[in-house]
């Protein structure tokens, strides 16, 4: 049952404040000290702050002999569960079953819960009693020191009502609110701990979201975008190496892809030969990440795919699952070696240094550099988005029922190029028009993705089957089940392909063409 | 959610003491626990210092005018809540009789709480009534305290026979000796002899000690104020036996008809 907490800050001399509170409450209630204890608290969230974005806070609280996982919901209710000692990070599905897990699992999804702040508190508890000597509320005074914080945070008083005694807790609150040393807490304990540790909620996002103005020199704008992408790559490298969850690699990989697209589509706006010099390195990085991500995609969709088998039994796929896990472990080690290598470290540091030089407006180095470095980014964005749109339209229109898979793959690549450009230069666009254009493009991309993913995964299943047979231990039912799986992937791709005409027509509609025209005009303005 | 009921047709055999202490021990083991005091005498409610009152009384609960969870009170102990008794529970039979499926009403009322609680204890009034019939249809396990007298086996057989007469799921039964006075030869003889003859008896034996009676004075579960006492150890042993019984069939957790839980546990079902 959720408990509605009421939180206050305590000012002044703490023992005096504590005694003052007890004295004030004695006018209506009995008061009994319930001891003191040291409590360690770890606040948890996913790397991309999914809980925080929904207004929820999750904390793991360890006291002497007790461990509790508590969720504070957006409306301030606290739902807690006693749990065994736990280490973090872990995914929500590895949290003990119960209401807390039921509430956090849909929010966290496949992302792991990580410590985002931690504190050690000395806690004193006061029980507030009714005429029967029954506890009707608890006052907890918490003096916390936050790990990694330079300064102490103010003491905090929490009134914890006992279930069924809300009216009494309300009376306690009203009595305490009259005391000068007690003020309503303006920030949650979590916000204060984060602030003290020098962190900001939501300080990670995989979005490009850089501030650009149309008149900014293109070289500087592009360097700003690429620095942001490098930030994302570096932010996700450690989680990828530690294999905390699959989305670290996913975000890292997307940032690498975006970097490669930026170099390909607008790299000529960077000074000197930065684009051609670094493109091969990012190709290497991209290729390094591909095998593990492909295996992750198989494994993430495995349960659903197995459940959809009609002829074969899901259990028949067990050898495939074991093989995927085994291959994944090997690929993970290979990727970890790559991300720990001197090649990756020096790529990141040298790339950052080069970009920071390009992004600095007052640098002499920027002056005198010709080409597209100095043209306004609005012009560059308009030209490149217009060109990408024309190329996508042209390749899409050439698709017929007889077109080979490669042609559709080319349309998908063109779509991605346009999408990346729209994302890079979003700050230059009218948000409503931008959202509309991205929405239409996304629907087309989803359709193209289903087609290509179906084909790629079908081929991957075939190649896995060949490898498993070569390894000599694959039972026939597993191969038959994999055959059915490949057929299902093919069928899904065909279904998506039937949809392509409609999606493409929608994308090339007059209305969307006007959106693109407006974006390219506005960007140039 | 596992539902345990402390039940005996006779009064004064230690049902409430068992319900309160076992519920407390369950909560201390980390189970989210609810104790429903169904006895209008409200002894369990008194022990937890809660007012014996439910807004709207038993009628509001049975008719659904007041959801069960709105009547629940937190106790002074983590993980342990109480659904208090109300004096109107003395007319509970009439209220249940007026409802559809009168023997399944308590199960129906408890069902929405399955998400919130791991363990529910029902502290039943003595006698065979519609309330007790509801409890027997709801519980996974009947915990039957027996004072070791000549008639106690007859009582246990009566309960077992009554449960066996049910169609469909039925609770498992585990009896334990309660209020055992080691100064009495009869008590000693029965406690020694009977476990060899029956398989529905717990190993744990709760002695008659003034420390147990002091629960009414201290108004707290015994393991709170005398955690290392012999009586507390006995309840702990009883809880260990109960909580480690295998979950299978029955209402939720039970042995097949005519077979004891201890036997089911022994056979590994």
Keywords, separated by commas or semicolons:
heterodimer, A: 525 residues, alpha+beta, Hypothetical Protein Pfu-838710-001, CHAD domain, 3 domains, eleven-stranded antiparallel beta sheet, 16 helices, 11 strands, 56% helix, globular, B: 269 residues, alpha/beta, Rossmann fold, eight-stranded mixed beta sheet, disordered C terminus
Describe the structure.
- By secondary structure, chain A is of the alpha+beta class.
- Chain A folds into three domains: 3-196, Hypothetical Protein Pfu-838710-001; 215-312 and 330-374, CHAD domain (Alpha solenoid); 376-525, CHAD domain.
- In chain A, 56% of the residues lie in helices and 16% in strands.
- Chain A has helices at 14-25, 50-53, 99-108, 166-177, 189-196, 218-242, 246-266, 274-300, 302-307, 318-340, 342-359, 377-397, 405-424, 431-471, 476-507, 510-524, and strands spanning 3-4, 6-10, 30-45, 57-63, 66-72, 77-82, 90-91, 112-129, 135-146, 156-161, 182-184.
- In chain A, strands 1, 2, 3, 4, 5, 6, 7, 8, 9, 10 and 11 form an eleven-stranded antiparallel beta sheet that branches.
- The two termini of chain A are 57 Å apart.
- The mean pLDDT of chain A is 90.
- Chain B is of the alpha/beta class and 269 residues long.
- Helices cover 41% and strands 16% of the residues of chain B.
- In chain B, strands 3-4-2-5-1-6-7-8 form an eight-stranded mixed beta sheet, sandwiched between helices.
- In chain B, helix 1 packs across helix 13 (230-243).
- The longest helix of chain B has 14 residues, at 15-28.
- Chain B is globular and about 50 Å long.
- Mean pLDDT of chain B is 86; it is low at 252-269.
- The A-B interface holds A 1, 66, 81-84, 98-99, 102, 127, 132-135, 162-165 and B 30, 32, 48-51, 69, 71-74, 76, 78-79, 81, 115-116, 219.
């Amino acid at each position: 049952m959720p408990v509605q907490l009421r939180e206050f800050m305590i000012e002044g001399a703490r023992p005096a404040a504590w005694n003052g509170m007890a004295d004030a409450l004695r006018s209506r209630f009995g008061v009994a000290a319930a001891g003191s204890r040291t409590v360690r608290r770890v606040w948890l969230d996913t790397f991309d702050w999914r809980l925080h974005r929904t207004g929820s806070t999750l904390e793991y609280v360890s006291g002497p002999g007790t461990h509790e996982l508590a969720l504070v919901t957006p409306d301030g209710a606290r739902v807690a569960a006693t749990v065994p000692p736990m280490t973090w990070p872990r995914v929500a599905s590895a949290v003990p079953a119960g209401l807390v897990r039921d509430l956090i699992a849909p929010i966290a999804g496949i992302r792991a819960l990580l410590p985002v702040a931690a504190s050690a508190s000395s806690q004193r508890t006061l029980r507030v009693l009714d005429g029967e000597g029954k506890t009707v509320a608890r006052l907890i005074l918490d003096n916390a020191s936050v790990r990694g914080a330079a300064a102490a945070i103010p003491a905090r008083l929490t009134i914890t009502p006992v279930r069924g005694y809300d009216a009494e807790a309300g009376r306690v609150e009203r009595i305490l609110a009259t005391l000068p040393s007690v003020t309503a807490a303006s920030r949650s304990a979590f916000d204060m701990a984060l602030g003290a540790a020098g962190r900001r909620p939501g300080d990670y996002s995989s979005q490009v979201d850089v501030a650009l103005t149309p008149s900014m020199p293109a070289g500087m704008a592009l360097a700003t975008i690429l620095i942001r992408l490098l930030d994302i790559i570096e932010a996700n490298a450690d989680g990828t190496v530690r294999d905390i969850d699959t989305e670290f690699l996913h975000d890292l990989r997307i940032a690498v892809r975006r970097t490669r697209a930026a170099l390909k589509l607008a790299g000529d706006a960077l000074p000197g030969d930065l684009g051609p010099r670094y493109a091969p390195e990012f190709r290497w990085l991209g290729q390094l990440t591909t095998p593990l991500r492909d295996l992750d995609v198989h494994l993430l969709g495995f349960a659903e795919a197995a459940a959809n088998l009609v002829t074969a039994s899901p259990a028949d796929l067990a050898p495939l699952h074991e093989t995927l896990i085994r291959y994944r472990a090997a690929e993970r080690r290979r990727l970890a070696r790559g991300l720990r290598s001197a090649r990756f470290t020096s790529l990141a540091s040298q790339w950052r240094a080069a970009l920071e030089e390009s992004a600095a407006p007052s640098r002499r180095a920027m002056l005198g550099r010709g080409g597209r470095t100095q043209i306004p980014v609005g012009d560059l964005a308009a030209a490149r988005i217009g060109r990408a749109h024309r190329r996508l339209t042209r390749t899409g229109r050439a698709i017929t029922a007889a077109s080979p898979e490669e042609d559709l793959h080319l349309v998908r690549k063109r779509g991605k190029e346009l999408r990346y450009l729209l994302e890079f230069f979003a700050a230059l666009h009218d948000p409503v028009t931008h959202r509309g254009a991205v929405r239409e493009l996304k629907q087309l991309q989803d359709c193209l993705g289903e087609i290509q993913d179906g084909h790629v995964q079908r081929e991957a299943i075939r190649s896995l089957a060949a490898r498993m047979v070569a390894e000599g231990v694959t039972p026939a039912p597993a191969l038959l089940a994999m055959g059915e799986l490949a057929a299902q992937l093919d069928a899904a791709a065909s279904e998506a392909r039937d949809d392509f005409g409609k999606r493409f027509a929608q994308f090339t509609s007059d209305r969307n063409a006007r959106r693109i025209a407006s974006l390219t005009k506005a960007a140039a303005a | 959610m596992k539902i345990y009921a402390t039940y005996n047709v006779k009064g004064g055999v230690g049902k409430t003491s068992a319900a309160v202490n076992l519920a407390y021990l369950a909560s201390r083991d980390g189970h989210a626990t609810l104790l429903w005091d169904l006895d209008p005498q409200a002894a369990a409610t008194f022990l937890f210092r809660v007012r014996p009152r439910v807004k709207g009384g038993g009628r509001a609960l049975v008719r659904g005018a007041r959801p069960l969870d709105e009547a629940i009170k937190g106790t002074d102990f983590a993980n342990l809540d109480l659904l208090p008794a109300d004096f109107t529970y003395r007319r509970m039979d009439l209220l249940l009789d007026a409802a559809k499926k009168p023997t399944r009403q308590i199960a129906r009322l408890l069902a929405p709480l399955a998400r919130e609680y791991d363990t529910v204890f029902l502290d039943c009034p003595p006698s065979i009534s519609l309330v007790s019939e509801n409890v027997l249809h709801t519980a996974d396990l009947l915990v039957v305290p027996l004072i070791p007298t000549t008639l106690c086996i007859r009582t246990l057989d009566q309960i077992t026979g009554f449960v066996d007469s049910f169609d469909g799921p039925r609770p498992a039964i585990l009896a334990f000796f309660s209020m055992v006075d080691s100064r009495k030869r009869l008590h000693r003889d029965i406690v020694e002899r009977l476990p060899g003859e029956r398989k529905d008896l717990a190993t744990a034996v709760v002695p008659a000690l003034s420390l147990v009676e002091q629960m009414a004075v201290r108004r707290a579960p015994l393991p709170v104020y005398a955690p290392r006492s012999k009586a507390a150890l006995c309840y702990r042993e009883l809880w260990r036996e109960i909580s480690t019984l295998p979950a299978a069939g029955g209402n939720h957790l039970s042995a097949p008809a005519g077979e004891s839980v201890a036997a089911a546990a022994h056979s590994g079902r």
